[in-house]
Structure formats: structure tokens, C-alpha cells
Design goal:
By secondary structure, this protein is an alpha/beta fold. It contains 13 helices and 14 strands. The strands form three sheets. The chain has an eight-stranded mixed β-sheet with strand order 1-9-8-5-4-2-3-13, sandwiched between helices. The structure holds pyridoxal-5'-phosphate (PLP).
Length: about 375
């Protein structure tokens, strides 16, 4: 059986973990955390990069930084993972769901303005499959309405929009290093603070609401509780593992993009025969090979495809249950306008395995057999 995902190891992870142990600091913000955050800062050009214990945690930090109060609204797509919405609900905020584009499956920027009210505090964009949202239009809307842009770039490391790194474009950007993403540490994430006005407060929120960072840099002679916050930092073992991955991030991305391209060439004929749709990457965006998916003609065909692939020995999956139709989404959020594209895509999309070391020939043979004995 070819599994849907298998975490890739560079080979240096255990050595760095051993070294972290030798350095006698296993709590956060030690040697390896600094290497990783410096790398992220350099790669993205952000003001400050903070490692977190997950992308979800980074988004929780953005909800505090955006000063979400009960009843405040946050605009976002419904076709996304729960962590795009949950952090705002934890602060009493109301997710306002907007439909997605037919091509990139990202939030439809043309539907955002009509969702804005006097309570809107932020727009959360999700770069689905690592392909960027239409950021120029979105930032323009945010500026005109004086609201923040938060990038859920969980899937977006190494992806580009007009030559800029995804995650470094809005006020705040969040990466995930969960084992299903391109660059991993088991669980893990990062917050990029691109709007420098928010950087000092981000450091405090991440350190349990204390000014410990100012103390360590000798700006204050004692550290104490100054704001709300939590413990959002990972320990050094996670950071050491992540450092091995970041050092190889470019190579990992190139290899994933090769697999992505192989799928895309393979599916182009089936696409021409109108059996399915394939992903679209706009001309001014560069993908990162995070995910390959196909969109079948209806839910019956989608479910049959997944079942037949399983019988042929390949594990394929679908997602997402749209947030607006989920139990908590109905309770805590509301929709703005039609959700027709979201509803359709959630019934017709299939994700294919995409991991370094998988047997692409066997997968493609299995797909051919599924389509030929129809
Ligand atoms: C994976 C993912 C997250 C959550 O990341 P964690 O690091 O597991 O918290 C959030 N949003 C999107 C779009 C994701 O794909």
C-alpha cells in the first residue's frame, strides 16, 4: 500500500537533537531556535520570525495581536482547515465566510468588500495548496478599510507571489511544520511579523505575557507580567529537528515540485478528455509542490475514485468539510453570500500522495487502471 503521506527525513535530525542536548538547553529560544528564526527572517525579509509549537499557535497569536474582542468579525474562506477560524472564536470573534475562486480555490478577492462591516477587524487569507491568494487586491481592500491581513501560509513555505515569499506579504504570516507539510518538525510552526509595529507585542504574547525578551537583552532589569499571552514557543529538540529540514528546504521543495509536475503532465490528457480538472497556478505565482489534487465531475465519481485507488493500493484522501457547514462553524460563524464553489469543490476534490521517495510509476499505473476499467 502506498500511504497518503510519509514524513521525509534529511538524515541530520538526530545529530542536531543530540547536539541540542549537549548544549544543555532544552527549553525554547536557544541555539537552534535562533538558527531557525534567523533563517526564516533572511528567507522572507520579515521584521521578526518567531518559532511556535504549531501553525495553530501562530494564528492564536495573530488573534491576540489583532486585538479581537467579542463580536468582532474576521473574514476568511470556508474551504480551509479549522485552525484558520478557531483562534478567533477563542477570543469571541465571529468568522465570516466568503466563497473561493474556481481556479485557485483561494478566497475570492472580489467577494471580500461586500463582507466588510463596522465590526470587521481582519482578513485571513489561506494560500491553498501553497498557491498564493491575489494579495495586491486583498491588501488594497484592507488598507482602505484599515483592517489587518493575516496569512494562513501553513502550506506556503517557498511559494511566491510576484517574487515575494508567501507569508511575508500581509501584516502577519503563519507557517506550519506539521509532518504533513513540506518542511517538518512533527508539530511546529512560525509566526512572521511583517508589520514591525506588532513585533514587540508578539514577543511578549509568546513569552506568557511577560517582557522576558527585554530582560534578556537588558532593556529592563526584571521581567514580569505585562500583557495577556501564553507559552507559544517550541523547545530546542523541535528546533534542532527543524534546522535539519530548513537547511535542506530548497532541495525538498525542488524535489516536490518535480513530483507535482509529473502528476500534472500525467493528468493533462485526462483533463483534455474532460474527466477531471487539475490545479491552476496563476502566472505571477510560483508553487511549492505542496499538494497535488484533482477535481472529478461529481461526488459519486470522487468517492468511487478513492475506493478504487485504495483497492489498487494507493491511499488518496479528500478535504475539507467546509467550515460554514461544520457543527462549530454554524454555531460560531456566518456566511457572506453564496458558498456554491466551496460546496462543490468539497464534494469533488481528491488529494493524491505527494512525498519524497514514493513510487510515482505505481501510482500512475493505478490511476490509469481506475480510468480504463470504468
Ligand atoms: C496544516 C494547516 C494548519 C494547521 O497547522 P498546525 O501546524 O498543524 O497547527 C492551519 N491552516 C492550514 C490551511 C493548514 O493546512
Amino acid at each position: 500500500m502506498i500511504g497518503f503521506n510519509k514524513p521525509y527525513l534529511t538524515g541530520q535530525e538526530l545529530e542536531y537533537i543530540q547536539d541540542a542536548h549537549n548544549r544543555s538547553q532544552l527549553s525554547g529560544d536557544g541555539y537552534y531556535t535562533k538558527l531557525c528564526s534567523d533563517w526564516l527572517k533572511k528567507k522572507t525579509g520579515t521584521d521578526r520570525a518567531f518559532l511556535t509549537h504549531s501553525c495553530t499557535a501562530a494564528i492564536e497569536m495573530t488573534a491576540i495581536l489583532a486585538d479581537i474582542q467579542p463580536g468582532d468579525e474576521v473574514i476568511m474562506p470556508s474551504y480551509t482547515f479549522v485552525s484558520s477560524a478557531n483562534p478567533f472564536v477563542l477570543r469571541g470573534g465571529v468568522p465570516v465566510f466568503v466563497d473561493i475562486r474556481e481556479d485557485t480555490l483561494n478566497i475570492n478577492e472580489n467577494l471580500i468588500s461586500q463582507a466588510i462591516t463596522s465590526k470587521t477587524k481582519a482578513i485571513v487569507v489561506v494560500h491553498y495548496a501553497g498557491v498564493s491568494c491575489e494579495m495586491d487586491a486583498i491588501i488594497d481592500i484592507a488598507k482602505r478599510n484599515k483592517i489587518l491581513v493575516i496569512e494562513d501560509a501553513a502550506q506556503g513555505i517557498y511559494s511566491e507571489y510576484k517574487s515575494r515569499q508567501v507569508g511575508s506579504i500581509g501584516d502577519l504570516g503563519c507557517y506550519s511544520f506539521h509532518e504533513t507539510k513540506n518542511v517538518i518538525s512533527g508539530e511546529g510552526g512560525a509566526l512572521l511579523v511583517n508589520n514591525a509595529a506588532l513585533s514587540d507585542r508578539a514577543a511578549i504574547i509568546r513569552e506568557k505575557g511577560t517582557n522576558r525578551e527585554q530582560f534578556l537583552s537588558r532593556k529592563v532589569d526584571k521581567y514580569s507580567w505585562v500583557d495577556i499571552g501564553s507559552s507559544y514557543l517550541p523547545g530546542e529538540i523541535i528546533a534542532a529537528f527543524l534546522w535539519a529540514q530548513l537547511q535542506n528546504a530548497e532541495d525538498i521543495t525542488l524535489q516536490r515540485k518535480e513530483l507535482w509536475k509529473s502528476y500534472d503532465q500525467f493528468f493533462s490528457q485526462l483533463h483534455q478528455r474532460q474527466l477531471l480538472d487539475t490545479p491552476v497556478i496563476p502566472a505571477d505565482c510560483k508553487g511549492n509542490g505542496h499538494m497535488y489534487f484533482i477535481i472529478l465531475n461529481n461526488s459519486f465519481e470522487r468517492n468511487k475514485f478513492i475506493e478504487k485507488m485504495k483497492k489498487a493500493g494507493v491511499d488518496c484522501v479528500f478535504h475539507y468539510v467546509p467550515l460554514h457547514a461544520s457543527t462549530a462553524g454554524i454555531k460560531y460563524g456566518r456566511v457572506s453570500g453564496s458558498m456554491a464553489v466551496t460546496d462543490r469543490i468539497s464534494k469533488q476534490l481528491v488529494r493524491l500522495p505527494l512525498w519524497l521517495g514514493m513510487d510515482m510509476n505505481k501510482i500512475q499505473e493505478s490511476i490509469l487502471s481506475v480510468f480504463s476499467n470504468d
